[in-house]
Design brief:
The protein is an alpha+beta fold. The protein has one domain: Oxidoreductase, molybdopterin-binding domain (Sulfite Oxidase, Chain A, domain 2, Alpha-Beta Complex). The protein is built from nine helices and 13 strands. Strand 2 and strand 3 form a beta hairpin. The longest helix has 13 residues. The two termini are about 15 Å apart. The structure holds ligand MTE. Ligand MTE binds next to loops.
Amino acid sequence: MLIRKPDDIPSSEITPKAAYLSRRQFLTGAAAAGAALAGGFYLRSNSHDESVVQASGEKLTGITKSKYSSTEKPTSFKDITNYNNYYEFSTDKYEPNGMSKDFRTRPWSLAIDGMVKKRKSLDIDSILKLAPLEERIYRHRCVEGWSMVVPWVGFPLSALIKAADPLPSAKFIAFQTILAPDEMPNQKRDVLAWPYVEGLRMDEAMHPLTILAVGLYDQVLPNVDGAPLRLIVPWKYGFKGIKAIVKVSFADKMPPTTWNVMAPDEYGFYSNVNPTVDHPRWSQATERRIGASLFAPKQPTLMFNGYSDQVASLYSGMDLRKNF
Ligand code: MTE
C-alpha cells in the first residue's frame, strides 16, 4: 500500500508504492480498471441535488445480534474512525475522517449490470430494506500489519445478489467505488487507477460471513468507513472491503481489482489473510491491534483471520501460495 509515513508505523511496514510504480504500470492499471466499465452502462449514481441528506451519525434502529459475531472487545469508535485507508481522500491514516465529513451519501443509487437477467438501479433506501440489519462484530486485518475489531451493522451480500438475479453462468461479482473528483481530491491525481474496483468469486460473495455494511456501532456508517455502502469480507485483508459502492457487475471472468492492477506481485485477487504467506516486503505472521497499549506485544495473525472453520472449504485443493 502507498503510505505516507505516520510516526507509529515501523519502517518495515512502510511501502513507498508511488516510488516504483512506473507511468507505464499506472497506465496499464487505468486501462484495466476502465475495462471494468466497458460493455456495461455506467450510471453516475450520486447525482447531487437539493434533496441531499447528511445521514452519517444518525442512529440505526432494529439491529439484531448475529451468531457470526466475534466475542472480542470492539475497538473504540474513535480509533475505528481515525485510523483509516481511504485513498480517494488521502494516503495518510489520520486525514480521511475530517476530509470526508462533507462527502454526500444521499441520494445514492447502486447500478446492477453485467450477467443479470435485467439491469437495474436500486436506491440506498430500498437496499436497506432488502434484509434485517445485523450487528456483525468482525476482526478487521489490514495487509499492512494492523488490526481492529469492528462492530459493523449490515446485511448479507447474498440478499443483494438475490435481488440482482444474476444469470447462473455468472462466476464473479465486481464492485466499483463512486467517481466523484469534486469531492474526493485524490481522484484528481494519479494516486491509484480510479475508480477503486474489487471483486469476489460468487461462492465467496454468497458466503454468510460476507456482508454489505451500512453502519458502525449503532450509527449510520461514518463517511470515512465507506458510507453509504461498503463491502466486508472478514477472512480477507481489509483492502477487499471496497467503500462507497455505486456499481456491482456480474461476470464469468475474474474482474480486475485495484491493488492487483497496481502491484500484481504483492496483492492477489484472493487476498485471504494467511500468516504463512508473507507479503514480498514484510511478514504477515503477526499484527498490531489498534488501540492496544504501545507496550503490548504484537499478536499472532490467524489463518483466514480466525474464520477457517467457516471458509477453509471454499479453497480446498487450491495452492494458497499461488492464489495469494
Ligand atoms: N475503498 C476505497 N474506495 N478506497 C480505499 O482507499 N482502502 C481499502 C479498503 N477499501 C480503500 C477502500 C483498505 S487498504 C483498507 S485496509 C480498508 O478499506 C480500510 O477500511 P477502514 O478505513 O474502514 O478501516
